[in-house]
């Protein structure tokens, strides 16, 4: 069989990793077929930061969004 398991990872804090192990790590260790683990987009952390600022009503400097 030509099977491939594709699993996405999420960026999680170290404390969360201790409490709940990663599904991607489990699949890598136990899957009988090849596993492709896809990391989150680098833009995801920036988007999360903008959402946190909006939630707390903090001003956003547009220069922070440009590389």
Task: Describe what you observe in this structure.
- It is a single chain.
- The chain is 42% helix and 12% strand.
- The relative contact order is 0.18.
- Strands 1-2 form a two-stranded parallel sheet.
- With 67 residues, it is of the alpha+beta class.
Short description:
By secondary structure, the protein is an alpha+beta fold. It is 42% helix and 12% strand.
Q: Overall mean pLDDT score?
A: 82
Q: Which percent range describes the beta-strand content?
A: 5-15%
Uncertain spans: none
Strand order of the largest sheet: 1-2
What's the helix-strand series? EHHEH
Given the structure, what is the number of helices?
A: 3
Q: What is the number of E strands?
A: 2
Question: Which features does this protein show?
Answer:
alpha+beta, 67 residues, 12% strand
Which SSEs are present, and which pair or pack?
Elements: E1 5-8, H1 14-19, H2 23-30, E2 35-38, H3 42-55
Parallel strand pairs: 1-2
């Amino acid at each position: 069989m030509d099977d491939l398991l594709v699993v996405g990872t999420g960026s999680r804090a170290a404390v969360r990793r201790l409490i709940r192990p990663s599904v991607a790590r489990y699949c890598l260790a136990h899957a009988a077929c090849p596993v492709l683990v896809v990391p989150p987009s680098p833009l995801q952390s920036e988007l999360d930061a903008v959402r946190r600022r909006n939630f707390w009503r903090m001003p956003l400097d547009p220069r922070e969004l440009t590389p």
